[in-house]
């Protein structure tokens, strides 16, 4: 039996709490500004999600 930790277990033990999509977009002034800041059209949701995920990865790296 393996005792591997999931990302959520790691977050709890380190005190790190990832920002929500809403919180990241709000820092850009909202969804529309977030999309425009990254050169995305309003229907490019997959690309926006990938960018949001990368922001969370960077946040976690900065936290640790």
Shape: elongated
- By secondary-structure content and strand pairing, the structural class works out as mainly alpha
What's the overall average pLDDT, rounded? 85
Quaternary organisation: single chain
- N- and C-termini, Cα separation: 28 Å
Total helix count? 4
Q: What is the rounded Rg?
A: 14 Å
- Biggest sheet: strands, sense, closure? none
What is the percentage of strand-forming residues? under 5%
Q: Kindly state the percentage of residues in helix.
A: 55-70%
Secondary structure tally: strands: 0
> How many separate structural domains?
1
What is the N-to-C order of secondary-structure elements (H for helix, E for strand)? HHHH
Care to describe what's here?
The chain is built from four helices and no strands. By secondary structure, it is an all-alpha fold. It has one domain (18-63). The two termini are 28 Å apart.
Provide tags for this entry:
64 residues; 4 helices; 62% helix; 0% strand; elongated
Quick summary:
The chain has 64 residues and is mainly α. Helix content is 62%, strand content 0%.
Describe the secondary structure blueprint for this structure.
Layout: H1 7-14, H2 21-26, H3 31-37, H4 45-63
């Amino acid at each position: 039996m393996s005792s591997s930790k999931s990302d959520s277990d790691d977050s709890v033990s380190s005190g790190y709490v990832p920002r929500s999509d809403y919180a990241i977009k709000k820092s850009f002034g909202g969804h529309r500004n977030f999309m425009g800041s990254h050169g995305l059209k309003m229907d490019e949701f997959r690309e926006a999600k990938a960018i949001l995920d990368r922001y969370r990865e960077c946040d976690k790296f900065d936290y640790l």
